[in-house]
Structures are given as C-alpha cells and as structure tokens.
Amino acid sequence: MKSVELKATLREDVRSKSALKALRNKGRVPAILYGGKESINFHVDAIELDKLISTSEIHLIDINLGDQTIKGVTREVQFHPVTDAIIHIDFMEVFDDKPIEIGVPVKFVGNSIGVLNGGQRREKIRKLVLKAVPANIPDEFVVDVTEMKIGDVIQVEDIEREGVEFLDHPKAVVVAIRASRVVVEPSLDDEEEGEEGEEGTEAAATE
C-alpha cells in the first residue's frame, strides 16, 4: 500500500468559527486526526488535499507536522453544499500492527469469451471492503475476466488474498457475464421481400 506525504500545520484555535473561516479564506482546510493517544487538530493546503481525494487510488497518508510524521487514512470528508470544495476532513491514525477497514478498488482486465460471443459484462463491485494490517493491503485487486463465458460470475469468495478479511458478503457478485437482451428487428426491406415471397408462392399454387 503506497504512502503519500501531506504537509500540515497544527491548529490552536479549534472552536472559533471566525478562525475556521479565516483558514478557508487562505486556502487551508481544517482537519483532525484521531485513533491515537489523543486527537490532533491541524490544517492542510486545499489544493494538495484535493489531489489526494480526487484520485481513485488508495494510500496511507504521511501527515507531516514538522517535528513528527504520523501515518493515517482518510475517514470522512465534508464538502461545501454549493461549491463542492472540501471544508473539513477527518483522518484516522494507522499502526503497523493494527488492522484497519478500507475499500480497495477492483481493476478488471481481459476480453471475456462470453462478451466475444455477444454477452455483456456487468461490473457489480468496483471497490472491495476489507480488514487487514497496512502491510497486507494491496493497491488494487486485479480480476481477469478472459475465461468467463456467458452465465459465469465471480464472487467475493473467489478472490483470494493472504492476510485479508473481506467484509463484503462472500456470495456478492463482483462481475458477471450476462446474455445480451438486444433484439434485432426485421428491416422494411425484409418485410417486403417476405410479402413478395408469399405472393409468389400463392401465384405458383394457383397456376
């Protein structure tokens, strides 16, 4: 699991609304880190934070507070209801020997036999929720659909990863290949040809 550094500055005034507004006006986002011995209040650069939040990748975040660096993961992000700008973020401290719950993206690869035969691929789960210590958490799960035929499914229980406890239901479908429901309607030309054929047959029978 990758780590990304995020520079932070301790926040002294944690209750004043005017202080929070002043931070945001300066392009800073108030934040809190919990899960350790005590909660830590700080603020980070809005642009740098947006880069971390907007990516689909998962990573540990090395929160650099100057004299110390603390590992954490994102837990809750609050957005402005009109502008969608991040106005507050919560981090949870991470320890090497303690499992954490996190969602890991699923990457589908390959052209399945079923799709080549006219089926449709239905991706049901794009992110698997799991519990594990940081060292056992992958950056992503790669699911190869090449050998899947029409009617085949891959469920959560079919995906294996040592040292990982999946929290999704074991029978939950991750990806399926379904039969296509597309119906090919006959063209006008085909209908006319069919009518002419019937007339020809009737004429031949009359003769």
How would you portray this structure in words?
There is one protein chain. The chain is of the alpha+beta class and about 210 residues long. Helices cover about 20% and strands about 40% of the residues. The protein is built from four helices and 13 strands. The strands form three sheets. It has a six-stranded mixed barrel with strand order 1-3-2-6-5-4. It has a four-stranded mixed sheet with strand order 10-7-9-12, with no helix packed on it. Strand 2 and strand 3 form a beta hairpin. The radius of gyration is 28 Å and the shape is elongated. Mean pLDDT is about 85; it is low at about 185-190 and about 190-205.
Structure, briefly:
The chain is of the alpha+beta class and 207 residues long. 20% of the residues lie in helices and 39% in strands. It has a six-stranded mixed beta barrel.
